[in-house]
Every structure is written in structure tokens, then in C-alpha cells.
Design a protein that fits this description.
Distance between the termini: 51 Å
Number of domains: 3
Largest sheet: 5 strands, antiparallel
CATH class of the largest domain: Alpha Beta
Number of strands: 14
Strand content: 25-35%
CATH topology of the largest domain: Uridine Diphospho-n-acetylenolpyruvylglucosamine Reductase, domain 3
Structural class: alpha+beta
Length: 288
């Protein structure tokens, strides 16, 4: 592995300064559960790694209706917060699935997003919860929807010198529900063959006013299926309607075959997991 310097940053300005100086040859570090593995594997070479766990703004976890989650906040810290778990159930479904407790205690949802793998468990749930990514650099800041963040396998919108400071989520209504499920060969410490995140908002009559579905591991980026929202809007949350949504999901994906699953298996799973997560989201929405 190429030798690199380690900087334990304590401020946003310090992170910005190091990343601006070294460009492509510098990366921020949170838990290192992906970055260090990639460095050992020779995926890229770095001159400096900037640890952002000591940056106060990156450790903010604030629920005041809406949710602000700093990029250094671990998955375990999030799901151990009972108020956040109740308000953002889809995020909790995913946060509790990433690796084992050791990984969950170090890895963050922002890190999972920045790794930008098509199978990333937290990305779909962040999409259906309406997440917005706060990107900063020495040149300023900008906001990008989680849905638009990933651009390809292992690629995203971050430019040289940019890093994710935090991710914000709008306050869910009392008639909102979300869920995430994946299919894996083992119970934990595995990568999804396919995954689905769904969210529903019900109106005063119990009909669906908004629906979102995002699928994992079935395309080069998370697949957000807008046609499902168009189909379900104004309809009742029934098994028949969710069956129709599953058929749309089956046709919307463009998976590959690899050692973990075939194209047809992933298409089938996309439909099945869409139906299941829509049903669970509906149950949670009805329960308030």
C-alpha cells in the first residue's frame, strides 16, 4: 500500500485546506470501513487521509422535526436514538443491516453514500426519505439531492476538494411510512443481491398521496422508479396495487449477472421487495 500522511482535522476549514492542497490524492476518513480496504487493494493511491471525526459540524445529530445528520455520525449512533428511529423507520431498517455491530459503530450513512456502490443499503432509504446532501469545499458549499448524488458504480458528483458535511431530511408527516428490505445469501456481513426502499404518504381518506421506490444492486446507480409514484398516487394501499407496482419495478431495472445473482433473479427480487416494502410502509403510515 502506498504510504500516506494522516491528518486528524478539528475544523471544517482544516479539512477544506488539506483537500484543496492535495486534490485527487486526498480523501476524508470517517470509519474507514471502505476507504482503508480500497487503499489496501490498490484501487487508488493517496498522499493524505483527513480524519473528520474530530470536526464538530460533522458530528451533529439534530432532530427538530427535520433531521440533520453529520457525515461522521455512525450508523449505530443513529439507530440507537429512539426518537429518530420512530420518525425515520426506513433509515433504521438500513442502518441496522450494514455489517455487524463493529462496522455499524464506525461506518456512517454519508460514508456509505460517498462510496456510491449500487448495492449501498442506506442510499435508497435516504432517497425515499427525501435526503439532501450538504457538500462543502474551500470554494463554498452546494446542496444535492441524494437521488442525484451517485453517477455510476463507485462514482458521484463530488469534485476535487469537496466533501460531505451533513445530510438533512424533511420532517415526515404523521401519515408517512417507509421501509427497506434486501435479499442476501447470509443474515449479515453480506452485500445485497437486490434491495428495495419504499415510502408512502397517506391523505385524510387513507389514499396514497405520494409514493417513492428506490432499488439497490439492480443498475449502475440506485434506481428510483418514478412510474410507481405515478401509478399509486390517489389509489388505496392494497395488495393489488402493490402487485402492479412490483411489475413496474421488474421492468424498470437493468441488472447484471455476477457471482451473487443472475439478471432474472434480480428482476424477480425487485418486484418482490417492492411489494413487501410498500406493504410495510403502508402499515407504518397507518400506524402514524
Amino acid at each position: 500500500m502506498h504510504p500516506f500522511d494522516y491528518v486528524a482535522a478539528t475544523s471544517v476549514d482544516q479539512v477544506n485546506s488539506v483537500l484543496a492542497e492535495h486534490g485527487k490524492r486526498a480523501r476524508p476518513l470517517v470509519g474507514g470501513t471502505d476507504l482503508l480496504v480500497q487503499l489496501r487493494g490498490g484501487r487508488f493511491e493517496l498522499d493524505v487521509v483527513v480524519d473528520i471525526k474530530g470536526v464538530p459540524e460533522a458530528n451533529v445529530l439534530d432532530l427538530n422535526g427535520s433531521l440533520k445528520m453529520g457525515s461522521a455520525v455512525s450508523c449505530a449512533t443513529v439507530y440507537e436514538n429512539e426518537a429518530i428511529s420512530a420518525a425515520f423507520p426506513g433509515l433504521m431498517d438500513a442502518a441496522e443491516l450494514i455489517g455487524g455491530i463493529q462496522i455499524q459503530s464506525r461506518a456512517s450513512m454519508a460514508g456509505n453514500l460517498c462510496n456510491s456502490t449500487p448495492s449501498g443499503d442506506t442510499i435508497g432509504p435516504m432517497i425515499v426519505h427525501g435526503g439532501q446532501v450538504n457538500i462543502v469545499s474551500s470554494s463554498g458549499s452546494r446542496t444535492v439531492a441524494v437521488e442525484d448524488f451517485c453517477t455510476g458504480p463507485g462514482r458521484n458528483v463530488l469534485e476535487d476538494g469537496e466533501w460531505v458535511l451533513d445530510i438533512t431530511f424533511p420532517a415526515p408527516s404523521s401519515s408517512f411510512g417507509a421501509a427497506y428490505e434486501r435479499f442476501i445469501p447470509r443474515n449479515e456481513m453480506d452485500i445485497a443481491v437486490a434491495g428495495a426502499a419504499s415510502s408512502l404518504t397517506l391523505d385524510g381518506s387513507g389514499n396514497i398521496s405520494e409514493a417513492k421506490v428506490s432499488l439497490a444492486a439492480v443498475g449502475p446507480t440506485p434506481v428510483t422508479v418514478g412510474a410507481i409514484g405515478d401509478l399509486l398516487e390517489g389509489k388505496t394501499p392494497t395488495a393489488e396495487n402493490f402487485e402492479a407496482a412490483g411489475k413496474i419495478a421488474y421492468d424498470a431495472v437493468s441488472p447484471i449477472s455476477d457471482m451473487r445473482g443472475t439478471i432474472e433473479q434480480r428482476r424477480h427480487l425487485s418486484g418482490v421487495l417492492t411489494r413487501r416494502t410498500l406493504a410495510k410502509a403502508a402499515e407504518r403510515a397507518k400506524a402514524g
